[in-house]
Design goal:
The complex is a heterodimer. Chain A has a domain of 186 residues: P-loop containing nucleotide triphosphate hydrolases (Rossmann fold, 3-Layer(aba) Sandwich). Chain A is 32% helix and 21% strand. The radius of gyration of chain B is 21 Å and the shape is globular. Classes of the chains: A alpha/beta, B alpha/beta.
């Protein structure tokens, strides 16, 4: 695996100037939404970018797509600098990089039928004829678990989960290599969320896609990601292969995030001390380590010196001065699912499996 | 805190109806519940299950053209569904208070948070002086652990973070010391670390005041963290009721089982999540028989014919499924 990464971000920053004065406006500061972010996405993998609101994860996704121009830094796709190209070459590059947005209600044009919405990217990129595009739409609908007759319906006729499938079909229409998934399941109900998470996994396997998965929910990330990058206030604070990040996190913020997730297990109740304080404003980023104002383990050094992201184990980087010396992490303790409940889940899955083997399509409410 | 063991709130056969040209549709369709004193009842379900409409029905806040069509809501021995609007206003505040999902939309952006708390207090205590109310409002902010409450008193909602705003809402709701707090998705709009702070705060305030809480949420993790008793709702009905342990360790309704399988868990490394096929039926297109049968892998012919009532399986644990107890079904499959 010495292959060069498919997509790379190098020192990407996005600062928004804050101005004062109506007539003679002058810049009084900057919101440092993304402040020097570097990562690499390898072919066929899922890299999750996680963090809480305001950490810059969605801005990073948009900069990668060049929907927003970065203030500094480069985006490399197959070694080619995306930030420098324009016009037709940019459009050609975009064919390989597609995005699925969070809100399946806002991201589909209500006046376009599903067929038109899904075919639109192909038309933009001049792929195929109207007839061949129509064929491809039907194929894409099947691929994403929708049915051919859905092609002539409008977005309002679909549920949230089905709309997200349409969004995915549309992103896949031009056969991209990288799909940026910006909180693709956050707006969905749990049972529907599970359907879409499973679909994304199946599609990745079948089509060899690479995913940049933006999320705030670490439990979802645990199910989809190969590697995880944790962001805090515009910076990446830790990157690790999934297993290492969840079992042996090496940044106090990652630990706080993991500990804060409410576990569906009443016997673990109240075992977590929540992180204190509020997220600092991106207008006034703390000196030294950005997390020191809320870090339960902060030392005097943390206030003074900004720790760089450094490798502490192969493939595992952390931006904490004391990454090696953190106390043992035991958030994984706890039984998880009770044995009786686990058996029932297995029975549910088995019954469902044997049912879907028969040709009974899932009913679709004709709302 | 009363010595009585009788529940603080009882909901009996509640139906909330919306009139449409095609006839009445029931958003809440025959729900019965009990909220024990000093405890938390968690109501879980996905969007459209009727959980929010249920809480609005308890509060007497069903939006037009909806109405409570049948059933009773008893706060101790007062039947809330029989009260006049003025009578209900008196219950709100000191009897029942409510907090909502999005604190920004529940706060008035052009008044300071202090003035809004004072206003809520004045509505229930016309006799108190301005200075007295101000002092009490600052105390209320301090109780919800807002740092430098004197300064925050004079700030506007937009100057506060989401977590701080939700704290203000809680301060306002608790200002008149309600006996029941209804929290409708109180942490859904918040980040996980802030959510943990707010849940922690709610737990402490409950221990301090002995109030009962109805926590409405779609998040089974939040329920497991907070609830003593749980009701699982599906398509306007309660399909399973029991203690938190019953629901998480001995789930009986296939919908509960499916939900438990759908949540991604941090402790586990399953490649695939269990999912429930299809989606929640809208209230105007409910299936015949059991409302869950089209999505249920355990469904048999009888499920398509008869709508199962809630049945007691063990003391305090009820499920609305003719196949319950499911252990025999599970035995054949695993």
């Amino acid at each position: 695996m010495t292959e060069a990464p498919l997509l790379e971000a190098v020192g990407v920053a996005k600062h928004y100037p804050v101005k004062k004065g109506l007539i003679v406006s002058r810049q009084v500061g900057a919101v440092r939404a993304v402040d020097g972010v570097s990562f690499a996405l390898n072919r066929g993998e899922t890299l999750a970018l996680v963090g809480e609101s305001g950490c810059g994860k969605s801005t990073t996704a948009r900069v990668v797509m060049r929907l927003i121009e970065p203030t500094a830094g480069d985006i490399l796709f197959k070694g080619q600098n995306v930030t420098e190209v324009g016009g037709a070459r940019l459009r050609a590059l975009r064919r390989h990089l597609q995005i699925v947005f969070q809100d399946p209600y806002a991201s589909l044009n209500p006046r376009l039928t599903v067929a038109d919405a899904v075919a639109e990217p192909m038309a933009v990129h001049g792929i195929g004829s109207a007839a061949s595009r129509r064929e491809r739409v039907v194929e894409l609908l099947r691929l994403t678990g929708l049915r051919p007759f859905h092609a002539d319906r409008y977005p309002h006729e679909f549920s949230g989960g089905q709309r997200q499938r349409i969004g995915i079909a549309r992103a896949l229409a031009v056969e991209p290599e990288v799909v940026v998934l910006d909180e693709p399941v956050s707006a969905l109900d749990v049972s529907i969320q599970a359907q879409v998470v499973n679909l994304l996994g199946d599609l990745q396997q079948r089509l060899g896609l690479s995913y940049l998965f933006i999320a705030h929910d670490l439990a979802v990330v645990k199910h989809v990601a190969d590697r995880v990058a944790v962001m805090y206030l515009g910076r990446i604070v830790e990157v690790a292969p999934k297993r290492a990040l969840f079992s042996d996190p090496r940044h106090p913020y990652t630990r706080a995030l993991l500990a804060a997730i409410p576990r569906p297990d009443p016997s673990r109740r109240g075992t977590v001390t929540p992180l204190g304080g509020d997220l600092p404003s991106p207008l006034a980023i703390p000196s030294g380590c950005r997390f020191h104002t809320r870090c339960p383990l902060a030392q005097p050094l943390c206030k003074e010196s900004d720790p760089p992201l450094r490798e502490i184990a192969p493939g595992h980087t952390s931006a904490c001065h004391f990454a090696e010396d953190l106390p043992r992490f035991d958030a994984e303790a706890g039984a998880g699912l009770a044995p009786v409940a686990a058996r029932r889940l297995a029975a549910f899955a088995a019954a469902r499996e044997s049912r879907t083997a028969e040709p009974t399509p899932a009913p679709v409410p004709a709302a | 805190m009363g010595v009585s063991n009788a529940p603080l709130l009882r909901v009996e056969g509640l139906r909330t109806l919306f009139s449409t040209s095609a006839g009445d549709i029931a958003a809440v369709d025959g729900v019965s519940l009990e909220v024990p004193r000093g405890k938390t009842l968690g109501i879980v379900g996905e969007s459209g299950c009727g959980k929010s409409m249920l809480s609005l029905s308890i509060m007497g806040l069903v939006p037009r053209p909806g109405r409570v069509g049948a059933g009773r809501v008893l706060l101790e021995d007062i039947n809330l569904t029989g009260l006049t609007p003025a009578g209900m206003r008196a219950v709100r505040g000191a009897g029942i208070a409510m907090i909502f999902q999005e604190p920004m939309t529940s706060l008035n952006p052009v008044h300071t948070v202090g003035d809004q708390i004072v206003e809520a207090m004045r509505a229930h205590d016309a006799g108190a002086s301005e200075a007295e109310l101000r002092k009490r409002a600052i105390d209320a902010l301090r109780r919800v652990r807002i740092p430098s409450p004197e300064r925050r008193f004079g700030e506007y909602p937009h100057q506060l973070s989401g977590g701080m705003r939700q704290r203000v809402m809680i301060a306002m709701a608790l200002a008149c010391r309600p006996r029941l707090l209804i929290a409708d998705e109180p942490t859904t709009a918040l980040d996980v670390t802030v959510q943990a702070q707010i849940l922690d705060l709610l737990r402490d305030l409950q221990a301090e005041t002995g109030m009962s809480v109805i926590l409405i949420t779609h998040d089974l993790g939040v329920v497991a963290e907070m609830a003593d008793e749980v009701a699982v709702m599906y398509a306007g009905r309660v399909v399973e009721r029991g203690t938190a342990r019953d629901i998480f360790e001995d789930p009986q309704h296939p919908y509960t089982i499916g939900l438990l399988g759908s949540i991604p868990r941090i402790e586990e490394d399953r490649e695939r999540l269990l999912s429930i096929d299809g989606s929640v039926p809208p209230p105007f297109a409910l299936p015949q028989g059991c409302r869950f049968h089209p999505r249920c892998p355990f469904a048999i012919r009888a499920c398509t014919e008869k709508d199962p009532p809630l049945r007691e399986l063990s003391p305090g644990h009820q499920a609305a499924c003719i196949r319950a107890p499911v252990e025999a079904v599970v035995e054949c499959l695993v």
